[in-house]
Amino acid sequence: MRRIRSVKPSVRFPVSASLLRRLAYASIIANVAIVVTGGAVRLTASGLGCPTWPRCTDGSYVTTAEMGAHGVIEFGNRLLTFAVGIIALAVLLAVLARRPRPRGLLPLAVAVFLGIPAQAVIGGITVLTNLNPWVVGLHFLASMVVIAAAYALWRRTVEPDGPTTPTVPAPLRALALLTTLVGAAVLVVGTWVTGSGPHAGDQGAARNGLDPEAISQVHADGVFLLIGLSVALIFAFRAVGATRAARAAVVLVAVELGQGLIGFVQYFTHLPAMLVAAHMLGSCLVLLATLGVLWSTRERRPVPPTADTVPAAEPVAAAA
Question: How far apart are CA 64 and CA 311, in angstroms?
């Protein structure tokens, strides 16, 4: 009788698909949270609460009593960066341990993990440049890139491992991509608006020299274009029977309208800090909703079974 060799599992601590999904979702939430808390640092004039980087002061890595409340706020935000990094590391380790590992998942996990220290370095440059508005804007946009990567990672964890298949015709996929690019442009111009006019919470903040009214009008025009494209997507998706994509577009328009309302109110009420913070959160939600529309234009289907994956039927014993 042949001896059957025991096969050792390739992974000692296997990670379930549900755990990986939860970790990926937590990474999205954590990266959105760090944007809002980073905004709170600026809105409380605590951007230089720790006046140097990577130390908080020349002689200490942590805040001191002499730094006061501003030092606590700035140092607290730096500590949150470590928390976001720990979550990203947990996602990366979970991806490495996942068997079978979905294709394309590891590069996304690595991108999110490396994006955290890259973002921290840009944050350090903002401190070393005395909160230069162009660098501050770059810091915000870097966060948006990390959030986009975290979203792509999460979506990959909830999809099967088959090839992608379009759910709408090619012209509508192009329209969804155009909407995404316009949304990205609106985010970029929004940072220019923030760096041009009065700064909520810090009247002494450096400005970028752009005309506040002119650049605000450019930003508003971009928002109107974005909303128009998003509404067009709703009707176009419904016309071709793409129900899931149409629902995603409805969510996008709702988020855009809420964000636009906050933007107009904060502009005409002279930038109250709470509304500015809400507007930063809204920017993250608009990005996520836009990506939701883009992802709804395609889907992954399960890999069809092959002769190698289907177990062979056991032979039926012949009757005696």
Answer: 66
Sign of CA dihedral 228, 231, 237, 240: negative
Contact 42, 202 (CB under 8 A): yes
Q: Output the CA–CA distances (angstroms, integers) from residue 241 to 179, 230, 238, in the order listed.
A: 20, 17, 5
Distance CA 245, CA 131 (A): 41
Contact predicate 94/37, CB 8 Å = no
Reduced to 3 states, what is the DSSP secondary structure of residue 57? strand
Share of the chain above pLDDT 90, in %: 53
- Roughly what angle, to the nearest 10 degrees, separates helices 212-239 and 243-268? 160
Cα 40 to Cα 54: distance, rounded to the nearest angstrom = 20
Query: With bands split at pLDDT 50, 70 and 90, how would you rate the model's confidence at 318?
Result: very low
Report how far residue 78's alpha carbon sits from residue 87's, in angstroms, rounded to the nearest whole number.
Answer: 15
Comparing 180 with 78, the larger pLDDT belongs to 180
* SS3 state at 300: strand
pTM for this prediction: 0.86
The token pair at 157 is: 């964890």
Residue type, 73: I
